[in-house]
Design brief:
Two copies of one chain form a homodimer.
Chain A lengths: L4 H33 L5 H27 L4 H5 L3 H10 L5 H23 L4 H10 L3 H17 L3 H26 L2 H5 L20 H25 L5
Helix pairs in contact in A: 1-2, 1-4, 1-5, 2-6, 4-8, 5-6, 5-7, 5-8, 5-10, 8-10
């Protein structure tokens, strides 16, 4: 089956949206993490959080450059997602540094899983970029080690952080679905917007009908929740 | 005249102090600027402020690495300056994004002048690092251009920003003198701590007596204020 101009336009739009939401997510994470860093218990911890924030900014710059390479204005691509992401951060303000640490840990890993899953539907160069940006295993490892230390230093943190982790996951999934559906992320190119059967070209994933799309989204959310739960267990917390 | 062990110890202490105050200044500027970036009027401006903040962090890392190279713990070197610098930031909280921009412009340039002047008294490798870190002319240029644009877009900003600039300068000079004298920066190695005449070895500046030291400090403050005033004039503001 050949690709129509409409399909191409839709695919371009999807890619610009995907990179736009990633770029804004990274820019705002940079600002939030670096502001939170100030409340770190030690100067060493401040520097660690700072370095994580700087990495978010560097990712923002990479994604921004890719948008420019595609002829898309980064600011325009980001703008539609600003209210939702700002709202997300407003709803998940950490009460202290340990909650900031947990927020970075949960949000970075859940969104990495999300973007990696979605990246299979975009053209190879952007897919590679997304996978590169979203596989910062070293950062996750630093956050995990620091959280483990905090939990072993003060076991009373456990129940509070477990609860906080669950809330973050809930907000993140709600966010992913809302942004996804509103902007036709998950229902658009990934799934077959009302059409019956549509096939992929050049490595862009195959999608089926609307019911299939809903199923896929539900599966993705389940997968994200499952991975999150495993990561909480690694911290000795109940997912 | 030969150098006594006491002189060497004093010189090492002076260098650790100088790099320590620079490192903490940069780490805290990074956090403040990136937090302020969030209030930028456009996403483009947010990214610009973010990049400036990231550069502060990179400078922090360079200075930190130099401290490590000298066998000094960066955290220990920074700690004594934390209260004074935090206090400085608390006293100079920008009321909006334009005041943030002006703060970055004034503080970066005044402190660059200060550190460059003081760097002549340290060993060559650290001197070179200080001069490298403190000559971010590109950042100054970006800030200057953005401030000029803001002032031309809204001429009512001029009197507020001129006043704010004067206040920032006053706080910065007070800070430089306080930190300098408390930690024996300016009265210690640079100036001749109560002794009569002390000469330099290996490129470390020559200093004279206590009255001479006070004179030097006064001259330095005058120079900082003069440079500041010229930079304000470049913005079309009264220094």
């Amino acid at each position: 089956m050949s690709t129509s101009p409409t399909d191409n336009a839709r695919r371009d739009r999807f890619l610009a949206d995907l990179l736009g939401v990633m770029a804004y997510g990274e820019l705002s994470a940079f600002e939030r993490y670096s502001a939170d860093a100030r409340y770190s218990p030690t100067l060493h911890d401040r520097a660690v959080m700072g370095r994580i924030a700087v990495q978010e900014f560097q990712h923002y710059e990479l994604v921004s450059a890719r948008l420019a390479g595609l002829g898309v204005d980064a600011e325009e691509a980001m703008l539609p997602f600003q209210p939702a992401i700002d709202h997300f951060h407003d709803r998940t303000r950490p009460a202290d540094w340990y909650e900031s640490l947990m927020k970075a840990y949960v949000i970075d890993t859940v969104s990495a899983d999300f973007y990696r899953a979605v990246s299979q539907y975009v053209e190879p160069q952007s897919r590679q970029l997304i996978q590169q940006v979203q596989s910062a295993e070293d950062v996750t490892e630093i956050l995990r080690a620091r959280l483990k230390k905090a939990l072993s230093d003060d076991p009373r943190l456990a129940s509070r952080l477990a609860l906080w982790g669950r809330r973050l996951l809930g907000e993140a999934l709600t966010q992913a679905q809302r942004v996804g559906f509103e902007r036709a992320f998950l229902s658009g190119l990934i799934a077959g917007q009302g059409s019956d059967v549509r096939e992929s070209d050049s490595g862009v994933g195959t999608v089926r009908d609307d019911a299939g799309a809903k199923h896929m989204v539900a599966d993705l959310m389940k997968e994200l929740a499952g991975n999150h739960s495993r990561r909480m267990t690694q911290l000795g917390l109940t997912g």
